[in-house]
């Protein structure tokens, strides 16, 4: 298990690099990966439905399946400790009762609030157009993905978000229902084999208006 933790939030943010070449000898244990994912799932979620789903691809067989689906990202696939495929579950509403009941059991929410909110949420989402529902879920998928990268950084690992892959094939390639699980992005994770490059950001004054 990696014992290098970064506790300085500023260093987590400013020290993050988009790494494409990793040390292939570094492995991340299932226990530590679970911890990273758990920290990622503390991200905000629309009406707390938590639609994100993760596929951790860290075996030789799993990477062999991924390689032809991520043709332009072979270095990340081959050298990373793992590639995490982030999906959103288009049936996430099925978990609403479980989520809200547990919130009541743990004392996070009064039962009367649950009983008032759940019917409203279900009623709204039942009639929401599929594209609008997917858009809502993708916002949550983006939030959890960024939080995952920051959590990985806090554990001393580096990441690279990948959008260029065969999104229409990846769910089925791993035996998942492609109509239910919609891909958000791939995130490679591991120990950087090089320092990577700093990147330029537009100044806040250029991208922000104050009213």
TrEMBL record:
Record keywords: Oxidoreductase included? yes
In terms of SUPFAM superfamilies, this protein maps to: FMN-dependent nitroreductase-like
Superkingdom of the source species? Bacteria
Record-annotated Nitroreductase domain positions:
13-191
**What UniProt keywords apply to this chain's record, in alphabetical order?**
Oxidoreductase
One Pfam family from the UniProt entry?
A: Nitroreductase
The keyword Oxidoreductase appears for this protein: yes
The protein's matches in InterPro entries, at most eight in alphabetical order, are given as: Nitroreductase, Nitroreductase-like
Q: Name one GO molecular function term.
A: oxidoreductase activity
Q: Which family does it belong to?
A: Belongs to the nitroreductase family.
Q: Which protein, by its recorded name, is this?
A: Nitroreductase
């Amino acid at each position: 298990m990696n014992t290098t933790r970064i506790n300085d939030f500023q260093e987590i943010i400013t020290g993050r690099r988009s790494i494409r070449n990793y040390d292939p000898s570094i492995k991340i244990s299932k226990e530590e990966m679970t911890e990273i994912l758990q920290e990622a799932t503390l991200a905000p979620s629309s009406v707390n439905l938590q639609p994100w789903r993760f596929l951790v691809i860290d075996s030789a067989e799993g990477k062999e399946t991924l390689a032809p689906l991520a043709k332009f990202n072979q270095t990340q696939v081959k050298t990373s400790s793992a590639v995490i495929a982030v999906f959103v579950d288009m049936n996430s509403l099925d978990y609403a009762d479980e989520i809200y009941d547990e919130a009541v059991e743990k004392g996070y929410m009064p039962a009367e609030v649950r009983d008032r909110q759940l019917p409203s949420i279900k009623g709204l989402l039942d009639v929401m157009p599929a594209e609008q529902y997917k858009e809502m879920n993708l916002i949550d998928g983006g939030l959890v993905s960024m939080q995952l990268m920051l959590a990985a950084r806090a554990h001393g690992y580096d990441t690279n978000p990948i959008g260029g892959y065969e999104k229409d094939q990846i769910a089925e390639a791993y035996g998942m229902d492609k109509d239910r699980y919609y891909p958000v992005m791939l995130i490679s994770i591991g120990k950087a084999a090089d320092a990577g490059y700093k990147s330029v950001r537009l100044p806040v004054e250029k991208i922000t208006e104050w009213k």
